[in-house]
Amino acid sequence: MYYGVSYYPEHKTKAELEHDIRLIKESGINTVRMGEFAWNRFEPNEGEFHFEWLDLVIENLGMDGIKTIICTPTACPPAWLVEKHPDILYMDNRGVRRPFGGRRHYCYNNKSFRKYSALITEKIGEHYGGNPYVAGFQIDNELAQEGTGRCVCPTCSEKFRNWLKNKYKNIENFNRRSGAVFWSQECNDFSQINPPVNTIEVGAQQQIHAFYENPTVRLDFERFSSDSLIEFQNLQTKILKKYTKYPVTTNATGIATNSIDYYKSTKELDCYGFDYYPGLRDTAVDSFPYAFARGIKAGKPFWVMEFMSGGGHRLGGSGRLQPNPGALKQAVIQSFAHGAQMMLHFQFRTFPIGAEQLNYAIVDADGVPRRRYYEMKETAEVLRKIEPIISNSKFVNEVAICLDYDTHWALRIKPVNDSSFYYFDYCRKIYQSLSEVGVNSDVISYDQDFDQYKIMILPTGFVLSLEMREKLKNYVSHGGILLGTFLTSVKNIDNVGYVGSLPSGLSDLFGTTVEEVEPVFENNHNHLKIEEGDCSITTTDEIWSEILSDDSELAGKYLTDYKKDKGVIARNSFGKGMAYYIGTDFCKEDLKTFLLNICKNNGIFIHELSGNDKVEVVRRRYEGKDVYFIFNFNSEETEIHVSGMFIDCLSGKVLKGKHKIDRNGYLIAMKSV
């Protein structure tokens, strides 16, 4: 288990460096992360490499048992490189080149930039690959962050055309599969195809409003750009692995912030790493990103390369709230409970300089240790105590939620009920609903193994391949329980609508067809009745509304308007299993009731510890016993009810009946046999 901070020795005077290193050593942390923005310090002039400035820090910390994560500095090409090769500069969808003076001002496909990136990576790998004080390597920093993941420069435009040619083989095939006949968009040659004018990139400005482009081209450009960034990343991965046996990763940002398919991007990496900045003031820390991270590499531990450290100023303005006392420690332990192997705060000491000046940190710019520092110190001590449990326990979840990047991209390119419906938020709602009724779940990709789960949930499987359809049928026919929702199997992998009745190719699986669809706005909600097992709910539709065929076996019907008595939820026995099709969304409380009923009826383990919606319980299996990590996110002390007998893993006390947990407190309890 690695716990520590990001640190920037290249900014420090000798006195500041000595002061900071002393505090870092005294804090009890065991990891620092360094180097990600220091290209010009590593290589101040072309071909002139310097590592001594970092070597001294790595050795000084390493002698006291503190390992270093070494970063490649390619997020910040230096001025001399830009001056010599101005064509490396990133070009956005408006045709604007990003100049030197910020960060991430490079084109990831540019041959010159790739050559220089490979060289600096080679030198770093050669120098640090066997260093005993190094724990691993991070490639670049937040690939595609701040609107730098959809370059349309001449290099990228030409490479995109070649990517299309390689995929479709000939222009006639492209024209047919993309529906280019629409609006007379057929081409005679791939040279006539350009990258899309508009983009779904976060924070981007559209070049031409009300310009509606071919959906196939737009989805393919998302895939191409993601593939290009992965290619650039793996150029460095391959080089580093020549020189080191230490883990190699990079730091992703959120689940889809930068539109990189993280399921694909981590295949060549040793683990999934990402940055996470949740609020820590009177709020629950959303664990959905952790479940996602855990599923990226089939349950392997993940690394959190940057994590919240405090409040005050921030890069983008407006500022952040300070964490509640205890919230920092609680959040770190929560991350490890959910499968982290590393947690690094950004950053150790506040910057007085640069674009991130005055940003939140563990220690303020004056270098005086205060409550955040001492809380980090306490956290390091707790982690040492619980490391045997974390490192030797496993997850035993029986429910999984399936995510898909093609679906995310397609629904951003042509939104459904924008801005009420966001695909990943809907997946998160399902995950949180399960958690709040006592069911821990995994989050996995379409490519992963379904058979280990009793229940699979497919939220809005909008883009569905023929292979995925068969995989779902095979899962259910062998005894699985599948919950599919509205907007399933609407489009094929070319982002073209299916012409068969929806859910296309799956009507036999779900025992129903969709007869009518519409978005749900403020003025057209419809009441509906759900009856499934012991569950009886009267609720209203949300987001999207589908009417199901009259010959369906129904678990839910509409109650009002012309939809009265029409189906909205269908269930169907298929082989040895059961499939449900849910034709709308409903409020979270009713969703929780419905999901709890499904889980109970199918023998899903539901934990024995009850509290309220701001108490999260994570169950793992340790030495044949259930161990529970319980987090109180309420703004006041809360009481949980313990069914059976438990042992507090930190104090050794026996727990049974009622037990109180402090505000921003936690409890690690093991079931007593």
The order of strands across the largest sheet is: 5-4-3-2-1-9-8-7-6
Round the Cα radius of gyration to an integer and report it.
Answer: 26 Å
**Based on CA inertia axes, which overall geometry fits?**
globular
Mean pLDDT: 96
What is the number of independent domains? 4
Question: Which structural class do the helices and strands define?
Answer: alpha/beta
CATH class value of the largest domain: Alpha Beta
| Beta strand count | 28
CATH fold name of the largest domain: TIM Barrel
Strand content: 15-25%
Distance between the termini: 28 Å
CATH superfamily of the largest domain: Glycosidases
Low-confidence stretches: none
CATH architecture of the largest domain: Alpha-Beta Barrel
Biggest β-sheet description: 9 strands, parallel
The helical percent reads 25-40%
Number of helices: 17
Which helices and strands, and how do they pair?
Elements: E1 2-6, H1 14-27, E2 31-34, H2 39-42, H3 52-62, E3 67-71, H4 79-84, H5 111-128, E4 134-139, H6 154-168, H7 171-178, H8 215-243, E5 248-250, E6 252-253, H9 262-265, E7 273-276, H10 288-296, E8 302-307, H11 327-337, E9 340-345, H12 371-391, E10 393-394, E11 399-403, H13 405-413, H14 423-436, E12 441-445, E13 455-458, H15 466-477, E14 481-485, H16 507-510, E15 514-519, E16 527-532, E17 535-540, E18 542-548, E19 554-558, E20 567-574, E21 577-582, E22 584-585, H17 588-601, E23 609-610, E24 615-622, E25 625-632, E26 638-648, E27 654-661, E28 666-671
Parallel strand pairs: 1-2, 1-9, 2-3, 3-4, 4-5, 6-7, 7-8, 8-9, 11-12, 11-13, 13-14, 14-21
Antiparallel strand pairs: 10-24, 15-18, 16-17, 16-19, 18-22, 19-20, 20-21, 23-26, 24-25, 25-28, 26-27, 26-28
EC number: 3.2.1.23
Protein name: Beta-galactosidase
GO molecular function, one term: metal ion binding
